[in-house]
């Protein structure tokens, strides 16, 4: 079985997918690609992803190509359901809470980081106060979410924690955001350090991403 993940750099999305595969105990091959430089690969890549935007996942066992990160993560959980266990429980209420956190990460938490940092990194523009406050608000919302349970969506570690962990590491490592003042986030983060497989590699990957971003500024 060969599962490939084509990526441009070790983004938060790539790291969330990798954390999920590590927790499931399955191997995904990370394949760096630059379709602007590799013209021979570009035509092949477009067949997999008409948006031309890495990351792009390809399952060689059935020819399935996916390019939306959350869809890739959910596919892995469904494909390897016998391994997923409490990561993505079948209970509809519990799963609804998990899905809600996945949408929160996409539309609020990770989006706030992008809105503040990406114009600085990719366009050389100064950070805006409004988008900085957006990040602060997102962290406060996460702090509140973590006041209810030990883990984000309930009493057990789930895929919601893995996805949000990748984003928190983005704030903490790539964006150098001080998260130590958030008591609930820090307690949860320390639990992740103990129970999440691939935690250390996720941090190292974020550091490599940070160095790349510094070169782009």
From TrEMBL:
SUPFAM superfamilies: GST C-terminal domain-like (SSF47616), Thioredoxin-like (SSF52833). The keyword ATP-binding does not apply. Residues 91-213 form the GST C-terminal domain. It comes from the Eukaryota. It holds the Pfam family GST_N. Coiled coil: none annotated. Keywords: Transferase. Belongs to the GST superfamily. Theta family. This is glutathione transferase. It comes from Culicoides sonorensis.
């Amino acid at each position: 079985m060969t599962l490939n993940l084509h990526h441009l750099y070790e983004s938060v999305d790539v790291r969330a997918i990798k954390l999920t595969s590590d927790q499931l105990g399955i191997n995904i091959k990370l394949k760096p690609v630059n379709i602007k430089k590799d013209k021979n690969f570009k035509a092949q890549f477009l067949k997999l992803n008409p948006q031309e935007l890495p990351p792009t996942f390809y399952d060689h066992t059935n020819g399935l190509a996916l390019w939306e990160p959350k869809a890739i993560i959910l596919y892995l959980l469904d494909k390897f359901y016998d391994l997923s266990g409490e990561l993505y429980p079948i209970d509809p209420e519990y799963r609804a809470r998990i899905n809600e956190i996945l949408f929160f990460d996409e539309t609020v938490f990770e989006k706030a980081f992008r809105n503040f940092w990406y114009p600085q990194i990719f366009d050389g523009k100064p950070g805006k106060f409004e988008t900085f406050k957006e990040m602060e608000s997102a962290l406060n919302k996460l702090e509140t979410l973590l006041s209810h349970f030990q883990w984000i969506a309930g009493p057990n570690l789930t895929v919601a924690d893995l996805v949000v962990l990748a984003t928190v590491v983005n704030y903490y490592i790539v964006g150098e955001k001080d998260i130590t003042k958030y008591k609930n986030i820090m307690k949860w983060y320390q639990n992740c350090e103990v129970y999440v497989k691939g935690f250390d590699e996720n941090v190292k990957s974020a550091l490599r991403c940070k160095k790349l971003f510094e070169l782009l500024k």
